[in-house]
Amino acid sequence: MKVILFCQNAYAFGILAPIRDVLQEQGHDFLWYISGKLLDNFPYKNEDYTVRTLDLQLYKSDAIFVPGNEVPYYIRGLKVQVFHGLAGEKKGHFRIRHYFDLYLTQGPYFTDKFNELKKVHKNFDVIETGWPKLDVYSTEKNRYDFEKKAILQQFNTDKIVLYAPTFSPSLTSAPYLLQEIKNLAETTGYVILIKLHDLMDPKWIKAYKRLSYEVSNVLFKEDKNIIKSLIQADILVSDTSSVIYEFILLDKPVISFKNIADKVLWDNSKSYTGLTQKVLDNFNLDPHAAERAYINMQFHPYQDGKSALRMVNAVKEYIEIHGVPEERKLSLARRLKIDSMFGKPTKNPFIGEKTNKISAILITYNEDIHINAVLENVKFADEIIVVDSFSTDGTIEKIKEHPNVKLIQRPFLNYTDQKSFALEQATNDWVIFLDADERIPDRLRNEILATVNSSEPTADAYYFYRTFMFKNKVLHFSGWQSDKNYRLFKKSKVHFTEERIVHETLVVDGESDVLKNKLVHYSYKNYDDYKGKMIKYGQMKAVEELKKDYAPNFYHFVFRPFYKFFNHYILRFGILDGKKGVIICYLNALGVYSRYKELKRLRNLRG
To answer: What is the pLDDT of residue 172?
Structure first.
């Protein structure tokens, strides 16, 4: 059986890892899919994984295990919802989105509700298996006892309190319990573990980290998996988070604030006050022990640590009876939603013989935020070469984590010099030359492979049109709508002209053409970064202009920047990009002004 372990968020790792273990034990093949945002923190990089849905299309899976709410309809395989929590009262938990063929439920409470929905929709099946994330309660319940004892001795106390709120802005208690948590720590001396969700508002992450610096017995936990903290803690403080049910299944008390469940079977406060007294009361009286027993029976009655095994076996048996679906049939609206989230399916994926090898080349300097993503993006190339100008921000360390990447460090003179050197290092004739902030989407990758390995005659160099990304949103106009550059070419047919030192020019001795699909360009990270980039380019252009021996004047300082702004904002429709258009057009004009300002300075130095 071929299986995809589908991760949209970091919480999926702890849910899918037990399923992965069973797949390994039974000898099944599996492939992790992770969204791009998870790449830097993915804990299983020694296993097969991808960030591309095209790879999922080519993989031809039999089943897809999904702890999230969406999955691409066009990927082959039984689409299996395994859930990302136990909070049935949360909005959307029982919403049928029609993406899944099979729901594997945690316990009777969930099974009954989904079976009722099955009668209505009649397009999925339900099997109760238990929840794999909780298998560790059986296998690791005593694993952290020694460490817990050491923590308690260090702080001379006998209790650990875990604070784990939801990230949802409308439900989270994080803004209101900061002082209450501080009072609890200072009054009782208990150890307080703070575990915030990855999607929590950054300002509250910062605030609770600051609290942990100020109060020694407040410990901010950065672990991606909360299980260790759940097992070590003696009581949980939360709000409307599914972690409440995970904790209750350990048969330990819970305090929540303004929980929205219809039926709250633990200590729930309607106001954000009195935390310290509530903690003391629950430790001394434990008034909700009977309710916890009911929750255990209804939500997750499995204590054997074999939920992942039941899931894998259930899927195998289901496929034996019903076969493997090629795709999930959806309405147009739902297909469009999936396409917007994961990209459209790649038509006619290239599966032919690779008759020509490709070298992917990058030049870098301080590209820490991009390097992992771009190296992952060009993994389909047969050779990857990075020429780095002695980065200082962690770029080098990340490159070295990719064993198939050839790293060369070399001082930077100018772009033409560095790119010419890098091109010489390629051992293959076909070359993809990218900037670190560029990405090749699936359809473009497919087009590249089909072109390079075509049995028909090809051009010697190909332009790529580029989609300019303003942060994570597309900039449709502002002069970028016709932006294109050579990015794929034969090494034997090109060279970089020495007359240009910035925005280097490729000279092609042969035929040129344009590929249909666009490259994605993440050039704009934030205002200061892009401003610095435009000023730097302007200053480097000034070195080129110095050779022309003219003195910049009013025309250059006023008219040329104004025309640059007017051309991009009015004539090239930057006005249609709204505020983004104003910013980009202004900064591009600033780059022109910076060029002549630097030119004037250089001329004065030359005398």
So the answer is: 97
